[in-house]
Amino acid sequence: MAPTLGDLQYQFKDTGTVLNGPSTALPFVDLSGVTGHDLPDINDQEDDMDGAHGSFVTATYTKRRLWVISGTAYGETVNGIDAFMETLRANFLPSASAQPFYFKLPGIAQRISYCKSLGIKYDYNQMRRLGASDIQIQLSAPDPRLYGQSHAVFLPAGVGEIVGNAGSVDTYPTFVWNGAALTIVGNEFYISVAALAGSAPYTLDLGLRRIIDAAGVDWSGSMAGAFGGLPPGLSTVTASTAGTLNYADAWL
């Protein structure tokens, strides 16, 4: 379950240690800086024009989002810092799949960035005498979007429903249904799926462009069409078979 954080607090994974938590309760981590809130690096390509001044520049998308989190960890006691560092190392172990990194900034709702841990670094030095240690954490988000409120919208068969993305960039929904033949249409996508004979329910993921049934079998070869997401603002989505559209508002 997602945590509820206070302003300027951060947490990696649902059960991870709160960073910048209440300093009245030891142990805790006091952050001194966070890199990663700005736009990720732009994925740009430049080709020189032949016989003319200038270049052809393509700069449509961003690269991954890299988080670098710096601060000081304080143990429950002078001799408790090592146990706390073991807890932090366990929190930031590597994993095969991206994990939620939650944060809350003043004036806006809590956000999520899905990241893979690049680990936590620290030195064993004189700060150990005070039961403290400077730390640096790095997280890499393959999907650079920052996600906000989640939505689950039931789409009746053949009835267009208006859905809203309150963010600044396209977000890619999933659609869950019973496996009957499906045509689902949005402002930026049109997908047709043949009737499926596996284990219901089925999940169509417009971002990954695949269909998985309840048993984990991939049915992606049964669909065709034009893929896209939900742009910022309002969209109308219509499905020929009833099901649930799941998505979250997205920002860069």
Q: Can you give a write-up of this model?
A:
The chain is built from one helix and 19 strands. The protein has one helix at residues 81-91, and strands spanning 9-12, 18-19, 28-35, 42-48, 55-62, 65-74, 99-104, 111-121, 132-141, 146-155, 161-165, 174-177, 182-185, 190-193, 202-205, 210-213, 223-226, 233-239, 243-251. It has a seven-stranded antiparallel sheet. Strands 10-19-12-15-16 form a five-stranded antiparallel sheet, with no helix packed on it. The mean pLDDT is 95. It folds into two domains: 9-144, Elongation Factor Tu (Ef-tu), domain 3; 147-251, Jelly Rolls. 26% of the residues are buried. Strand 1 and strand 2 form a beta hairpin. The chain has 252 residues and is mainly β.
Poorly predicted parts: none
Major β-sheet strand ordering: 2-1-7-8-9-6-3
Residues in helices, as a percent range: under 10%
Gap between N and C termini: 24 Å
The CATH architecture assignment of the largest domain turns out to be Beta Barrel
Radius of gyration: 22 Å
Largest sheet: 7 strands, antiparallel
Query: Please, how many helices?
Result: 1
CATH topology call of the largest domain:
Elongation Factor Tu (Ef-tu), domain 3
Number of strands: 19
What order do the SSEs take from the amino end to the carboxyl end, as H and E? EEEEEEHEEEEEEEEEEEEE
Beta-strand content: over 45%
Strand pairing plus helix content: what structural class?
mainly beta
Mean pLDDT equals 95
Q: Domains counted in the coordinates: how many?
A: 2
